[in-house]
Amino acid sequence: MLDTIEQRVLIYAPLGKDAVLACHALENAGLHCHVCMSLSDLLGELNRGVGVVVTVEEGLPDSAAKHIKNFLVTQATWSDLPILVLTKTGGTSPWIQGAAERFGNLTLLERPVRAPTLISAVRSAMRARLRQYEVRLSDERKDEFLAMLAHELRNPLAPISAAAELMEIISADPAKVKNTSKIIARQVDHMSNLIDDLLDVARVTRGLVTLEKELLDVRDILSQAVEQVNPQITTKQQHLAIEIPEKAASVFGDRKRLIQVVANLLNNASKYTPDNGHIVVKLQLHPEWIVVDISDDGIGIVPDVLSRVFDLFAQAKRTSDRTQGGLGLGLALVKSLVTSHDGSVHAASPGPSQGSTFTIRLPRMADKEITETATQLPLIDSAKPNAHSLQIMVVDDNVDAANTLSMLLNILGHVVSTEYGAKDAIKRARNAVPQVCILDIGLPEMDGYLLAQALREMPETSAATLIAMTGYSQEEDR
Questions:
Q1: Judging by DSSP bridges, how do beta strands 289-296 and 83-87 pair with one another?
Q2: pLDDT for 323 beyond 60
Q3: For residues 31 and 21, what is the distance between their CA atoms, to the nearest angstrom?
Q4: Which residues contact 245 (CB under 8 A, 6 or more apart)?
Q5: What is the pLDDT of residues 289-298, one digit of tens each?
Q6: Beta strands in 39-99 (DSSP E)
Q7: Tens digit of pLDDT for each residue in 414-451?
Q8: Angle 148-150-155 (CA atoms, 0-180°, nearest 5)?
Q9: How far apart are CA 179 and CA 316, in angstroms?
Q10: Cα–Cα dist 328/268, whole Å
Q11: Rounded CA separation 41/7 (Å)
């Protein structure tokens, strides 16, 4: 929450009645004012916090202007303090010359100033100041987020690094090698999930996700989401209660994304609820809406966090142990996905240690429509595995990634050739004649797109299957 001190109007007019009159007019308009009786008083209050400064030309001789200018020079990068100066009649005094250069964000109001004019000017300056505070808050959230991101990505690197060194020592013990490889796989999976969350938020908030909507029963969505989160709930010995009606709860939505929404909220409920705690999922049917409440008796949410809990980069302060983990992107993603389904999501909590409730509202469809549509869905044959050995070429300038993938494919019985650059890959393709080419996109000299073009034009690989292998996974990359 923004401190009221930072929204104050500081009034400095040491001579006459200007300060009293200005304060009276502004406070009647609902603005919080503080009258500074001296320059030292003004400088002290500036350091405490200020929204707008209102002063008079006579109060800013060169000696006073120098101190205020020094304060302005040391402002944070987000700050551009608005200063309103009431000038003498005529507006041609020597003081005005160069005033904008000295004070930066300066507005001059020639006296006598009518109260509505003064109020309008101060309100306009205050709006601009509030936008500056929004920039500051955004920067703070991003800084905190980047610090958490670095922490979360560094955490799995330690066991991966240790496991890699350990495998060199225990290479003769198959059982230990297997356990060590499982450690690496788990940590890589954790890192992949973090990165997937980042990419998901980026895609959804930029409107780049295409929803594959169909008629669905929310009861099935809840069942599949619970199935995903149940191992975590079981590990913490938490009590999960599900209240669902017998009647179908029909919505038009993307199955995968709606499961993701519910699973994220269930995961949060479990994460922030202690062992042996309680989680309740309640599905209610209304004439035009389907409402899902996910409640817990966990740590709750403090009011200042509750107001911004769905904002990107916004979350409660964490202790240094970071026991809860995660990047805090889940709720921002939940809101974006629910909104894209023409629904809404709301958070409520009585306060710390009193649990929380997240409520999803989705437009309800007629129950008969889902039954009729279900019979029309085409059946898709499952793909049959192809067991014969393939000629595969792997191309990646990341030597470790290329070698690891090649070893894995080789162990699976395929004949694999490995190249670390596009030009060498073209030469190899003429001789090896691969049936499958796995190509990195971000190659030096010639990227994967151009390499794919070249391979398509070669008679040896014109019919080969080309597979992109890349960290670039935005929609435009596809």
A1: unpaired
A2: no
A3: 14
A4: 283, 284, 285
A5: 999 999 999 9
A6: 52-56, 83-87
A7: 999 999 989 999 999 998 899 999 998 888 778 889 99
A8: 95
A9: 36
A10: 10
A11: 17
Claim: this prediction has a pTM higher than 0.70: no
pLDDT tens-digit series, residues 350-381? 989 899 999 999 999 976 544 444 333 333 23
Report the alpha-carbon distance of residue 184 to residue 182 in Å, rounded: 5
| Residue corresponding to tokens 């916004």 | 314
Identity of residue 459: P
Stated as kind and residue range, the H or E segment containing 109 is strand 106-110
The answer to whether the beta carbons of residues 354 and 340 sit under 8 Å apart is no
Q: What is the dihedral of CA 12, 17, 21, 23, to 10 degrees?
A: 30
The long-range contacts involving 152-161, CB below 8 angstroms and separated by at least 24 positions, are: 152/194, 152/322, 152/325, 152/326, 152/327, 153/191, 153/194, 156/187, 156/188, 156/190, 156/191, 157/187, 159/183, 159/184, 159/187, 160/184, 160/187, 160/188
Q: Which amino acid is at 278?
A: H
Q: 201 is written with which tokens?
A: 């938020």
